[in-house]
Amino acid sequence: MESTFDENRSRSFLFRFTLLLSLQALVGYIVNSIDMFMVARLGETSIAAVGIANQFYNLLTYVFNGVFNSSVIFASQFWGKKDVRSLHKVIGFSLTAAVAVAVIFSFAAIALPRYIVGVFTSNPEVLEAGATYLRIKGLSYVAAAVGTCYIALMKSTGNAIFPLVLSAGTLVVNIFLNYAFIYGRLGFPEMGVYGAAVSASVLRYAECIVILIFIYAGKSPAAAGIKELFSFDREFAAKFSKVSLSVIINDIVWYLGIVTYNWIYAKMGVEAIAAVNICSSVEGMFTTLFVGMTSTCSIFTGNYIGAGLNEKAFRCSKSFLALTVIGSVLMGAVLVLSAKGILSFYLLSSAAYINTWYLLTVTGFILSVKVCNIILVVGILRCGGDTRFPMALDLVTMWGIGIPLALLGAFVLHLPVYWVVLLAAAEEIAKMAGGLKRFFSKRWIADIALS
């Protein structure tokens, strides 16, 4: 396998690696969103229930992202130095943190599902269906922690093929299980929303087992023994935690902002939250196409910084930023033009249809700004070790600009949901301006890998 770090790596290799990660991210997103798509035919109540219940899993995902994005920062720089021993310490510490968090979230989802879903809705049908879905899916959180950790570290060491193959296989199995469990096909009873949760839980454990077999049977660089995984000392843990804490706080603050947005939309009515849930799924699919660019940018920029090639790191990240912005403008146009076609897959009332159509159009116009912010924060600033500035930027723009404007639009001006979302987009514009200024200052470039 071609090494991830190679000062003279070819453009063709960068393109292949980016393409593989983009495809894997897209397929992985579809896997995570397939429940929403496959319960769409059950009506707005089921759509709202699954969307709201998944807010809790999404919170867990962002905590995971904080841990694993920190891992990628260190791992990519360690891989640039060819320090496999320290790479194993990163894996061990990441696993410890992620599993501990997963256990806490799993307990809450199983024991308190109605309280969690009740934060977002008082509709009794949505509450009951959402609590059922959350309780069952909560059983899978630990398996998700282990699997996601190893996949993130595998990418940092240059393996982009296995994650793609795994995601493709998972997608096929997930569609099969959802088809059988949700709609009562192939001899199974019809379980509706409950069946979607059962399918998701079974799939996570199967996926985790396959990942572990591949890593240890194939002797991947991520294949470390128990002693190697937990060989990190207090100094290592403290330095890792210093970086990861900023990333985790950043992701949690950002996600709590998303939760607040969704609370606002949920209080605007079932049609509004159903429109937002559909739009979020579609938007995620479009933005996920650029996750591969963001991941590749993060990994290779970190490789260059770890090898002491700071100017090359800046040029690499600048090229990825430009390509991402151009591509996202084109994809935004595609989203606007295909909005009606997308909505043909959903069974919606006329009010929900109009809300969702306008909302998809608004999303298409602001897509490039959102994508620019993703690669600036995750793909560039963080991978250079600059974790505090993005945290402050998210805090100021989201909680100082976006959320106040959304509250104003929803509860004072009583605007339709698509106008409220457009008002809140002022956050993204302010964030992009601050992020670009920081990027061109080059103050984000720092070698934080431990020797």
Write the layout of secondary structure elements.
Layout: H1 11-38, H2 44-81, H3 84-111, H4 113-118, H5 124-137, H6 141-156, H7 161-183, H8 193-217, H9 226-229, H10 234-267, H11 270-288, H12 291-306, H13 310-343, H14 350-381, H15 388-412, H16 417-424, H17 426-441
Helix pairs in contact: 1-7, 1-11, 1-12, 2-3, 2-5, 2-6, 2-10, 2-11, 2-12, 3-6, 5-8, 6-8, 7-8, 10-11, 10-15, 11-13, 11-14, 12-13, 12-14, 13-14, 14-16, 14-17, 15-16, 15-17
Could you characterize the architecture of this molecule?
It comes from Ruminiclostridium sufflavum DSM 19573. One of its GO terms (cellular component) is plasma membrane. The chain crosses the membrane at residues 12-31, 91-112, 132-153, 160-181, 193-217, 243-264, 284-307, 319-337, 357-381, 393-411. Its main location: membrane. By secondary structure, the chain is mostly helical. It has one domain (11-441). Helix content is 81%, strand content 0%. It has 17 helices and no strands. Helix 3 packs antiparallel against helix 6. The longest helix is centred in the N-terminal third of the chain and has 38 residues, at 44-81. The model is unreliable at 1-5 (pLDDT under 50).
Please, how many helices? 17
Distance between the termini: 25 Å
Series of secondary-structure elements, N-terminal to C-terminal: HHHHHHHHHHHHHHHHH
| Uncertain ranges | 1-5
Number of strands: 0
- Rg (C-alpha, Å): 21 Å
Instruction: Report the oligomer.
Output: single chain
Q: What form results from the Cα inertia axes? A: globular
Question: What is the makeup of the main sheet?
Answer: none
Helix fraction by DSSP (H/I, runs of at least 4): over 70%
Strand residues, percent: under 5%
Average pLDDT confidence is 82
Q: What number of domains?
A: 1
What structural class is derived from the secondary structure elements? mainly alpha
InterPro entries: MATE_fam (IPR002528), MdtK-like (IPR048279), YsiQ (IPR047135)
Main location: membrane
Keywords: Cell membrane, Membrane, Transmembrane, Transmembrane helix, Transport
Membrane topology: Multi-pass membrane protein
